[in-house]
Specification:
Blueprint: H1 2-21, H2 23-26, H3 41-71, H4 85-109, H5 120-123, H6 126-130, H7 140-166, H8 168-171, H9 181-190, E1 197-200, H10 203-212, E2 217-219, E3 234-239, H11 248-258, E4 268-274, E5 277-289
Parallel strand pairs: 1-2, 1-3
Antiparallel strand pairs: 3-5, 4-5
Helix pairs in contact: 3-4, 3-7
């Protein structure tokens, strides 16, 4: 056990050190939890527990019925129980501990938002625990059927994602995979920005532009500040598809971190048709600040 603890410390020590010395980066995304939302203590608890329950149900809502379809047989206690009771108890404690931590987050920090995908690192062991319960009818034939069904489900998800992207013009609103960032980046180059300091509205806009301006430093109000050369060209950019005006948060962030007076600059715009949905367009607004090299 001491050797296991030593290995654990060796693995996590660099990460813990980075976390402690980069606390701003570590906590940059905590806003997603809506901690301390100003709705009152009782309302915050109600929102938090409702969100947690819905996230757990979303995670287990398909797994449990499908698993029961292939493995559950009332009164069966034969080949089902794999491993021993200690193994099952350990996994169950792991699942309960993760759930209790979420409850403590609600009670102590008034966390009011949980998403189903956040449950993956907490509930990932649920299928392992299910094969240990006595009522599971675990046979090789059932396992093969279950694996085949799971494979078909995974393929179906891939097909649906691709169909939603390729058929966005017919079947609904274009998604993120339809965003024409390559065409928009080309237009930004034509407008005179070839690289430098990008101050984006959010991580989505900034991260996608980073793909096409790899040498640039990208900032956004939701990520920590990076030291940038004052002699670098700056591009203040936002998604103007629905609103032409620069977001107030971006304007204040750009003024504080680059010294740019956004009110003194004339906004420019580029737009391009969405991929596989040419009848829909995406528009970026930007302010370009040119700096003379020393």
């Amino acid at each position: 056990m001491w050797l296991a603890v030593l290995c654990l410390l060796l693995v996590i020590s660099p990460h813990l050190y980075w976390t402690i010395t980069h606390m701003q980066a570590t906590l940059a995304q905590t806003g997603k939890f809506h901690v301390g939302r100003s709705v009152g203590l009782l309302a915050s608890y109600v929102l938090g527990f409702h969100s947690l329950v819905m996230a757990v149900v979303s995670f287990l809502g398909v797994l449990l019925p499908v698993y029961a379809l292939f493995f559950y047989q009332r009164g069966s206690r034969g080949l089902a129980a794999i491993g021993n009771k200690d193994d099952a108890a350990l996994i169950l404690r792991l699942l309960l501990t993760g759930t209790c931590l979420c409850i403590l987050m609600i009670l102590c920090f008034k966390v009011s938002v949980f998403k189903d995908r956040w449950m993956q690192p907490l509930l990932f062991a649920t299928p392992i625990y299910l094969v240990t319960i006595p009522s599971a009818r675990w046979t090789l034939t059932n396992a093969r059927r279950y694996a085949g069904f799971s494979l078909l489900g995974a393929l179906a998800v891939l097909v649906v994602i691709a169909a939603h992207t390729l058929g966005a013009a017919k079947w609904g609103e274009p998604g993120r995979l339809n965003a024409p960032y390559e065409a928009l980046a080309a237009q930004l180059r034509q407008a005179g920005f070839t690289g430098g300091h990008i101050i984006a509205q959010d991580r989505l806009v900034g991260g996608n532009l980073k793909l096409f301006f790899p040498e640039s430093v990208v900032e956004a109000p939701e990520v920590p500040y990076f030291a940038v050369s004052i002699n670098t060209d700056r591009l203040i950019v936002w998604n103007a598809t629905r609103n032409d005006d620069i977001p107030v948060k971006l304007r204040d962030f750009a003024a504080a971190h680059s010294g740019a007076d956004c009110s003194a600059l004339q906004p420019q715009y580029v737009q391009a048709p969405c991929q596989y949905a040419p009848d829909r367009t995406m528009r970026l607004g930007f302010l370009r600040v040119c700096m003379d090299a020393p």
